[in-house]
Design a protein that fits this description.
By secondary structure, this protein is mainly alpha-helical. The protein has six helices and no strands. The longest helix is centred in the first third of the chain and has 33 residues.
Length: about 120
C-alpha cells in the first residue's frame, strides 16, 4: 500500500468516525430537547434567538464574533456551529444596505435605472 492510498484510507476512516459522532450528538441533542418542559424550551429559544439577533442584526458581526463574543463559546464550537447550520444561516443574513445594493445591481444589469430616496425621521 502506498503512502497516498494509506492516507486516503485513514481520511476515509476519520470521516466515518466523524459522521457517526455527529449522528450520535444529533440524536442526544434531540433527546435533550424533547426532555425539556415547554417553559424550558421557550427559555432556550429566547436565549438563543436574542443572541443571534445581537450578533447578526445589532452588531453585524462575523461568524466567529457571534460564537466567541456573543455566545461566549470557545473554538471547540466552531465545527458544531457549522454542523447545526448556523454558519449557513449567518452567511444568508444581509443588512438592508446590502439588500439595496444587490437589488440595484440586479436592476442595473437589466438596464433599469434606480432612483434611491432617503427618508428622514424626526423625533419631536
Amino acid at each position: 500500500m502506498t503512502d497516498k492510498s494509506k492516507l486516503l484510507e485513514t481520511l476515509s476512516e476519520l470521516s466515518e468516525v466523524w459522521q457517526k459522532q455527529s449522528e450520535q450528538y444529533e440524536a442526544e441533542n434531540d433527546e435533550w430537547w424533547n426532555s425539556l418542559t415547554e417553559r424550558e424550551r421557550e427559555d432556550a429559544f429566547y436565549a438563543v434567538v436574542k443572541r443571534i439577533y445581537k450578533a447578526e442584526i445589532v452588531d453585524q458581526g462575523t461568524y466567529r464574533y457571534a460564537l466567541y463574543e456573543v455566545f461566549g463559546f470557545g473554538p471547540g464550537m466552531y465545527m458544531q456551529g457549522i454542523e447545526c447550520g448556523y454558519m449557513e444561516l449567518h452567511n444568508a443574513i444581509y443588512t438592508h444596505e446590502e439588500m439595496r445594493e444587490l437589488r440595484d445591481r440586479e436592476l442595473a444589469s437589466k438596464g433599469i435605472a434606480v432612483e434611491t430616496t432617503t427618508v428622514e425621521l424626526k423625533n419631536d
